[in-house]
Amino acid sequence: MMPSCPHARREAVMATIIPCNGRLGVSYTYGNGDAETGPIGPDDWPLIGLLKRQGKISFTSQLVRERFEAASQSAMMKGCYPMLQGALRGGPRFH
After folding, report:
1. Which ranges constitute the DSSP H helices of 1-95?
2. Mean pLDDT over residues 40-56, rounded?
3. Which of 29, 47, 35, 30 is nearest to 91 (CA)?
4. Residue 6's closest CA among 26, 32, 27?
5. Checking DSSP bridges between strand 12-20 and strand 57-59, what pairing results, if any?
């Protein structure tokens, strides 16, 4: 993600899952219309999971949606991103 973004990621009001350099990426949109884009990293999954549960996530294509769902399932099965499985739990804070 772009370190110069003046917003804390937890302030995002929407996320769009995008292709990004051969990987999945995310574009966060903030209340004032600003956006921040980059590849999805481990710190992004908790916020993406929260926005998904709130119905505030979109995809640039059906293929991107399918890749995202596969990545989400894989992460949950491995226990890597427990925040995708339910309510927020203690853990690393968003920045």
Report:
1. 45-53, 62-78
2. 91
3. 47
4. 32
5. parallel
Query: Sheet harboring 23-30: ordered strands across?
Result: 35-39, 23-30, 12-20, 57-59
Q: What is the DSSP letter of 9?
A: G
What the block records as the tokens of 95 is: 């920045």
For range 59-72, the mean pLDDT: 92
pLDDT in tens, 17-47: 999 988 999 999 999 999 999 999 888 988 9
**Distance from C-alpha of 70 to C-alpha of 87, rounded to nearest angstrom:** 21
**Pairwise CA distance, residues 63 & 84, whole Å:** 20
Model confidence, pTM: 0.73
Q: How far is Cα 43 from Cα 11, in angstroms, rounded to an integer?
A: 14
Structure tokens at 87: 């309510």
CA 14 – CA 28 distance, rounded (Å): 6
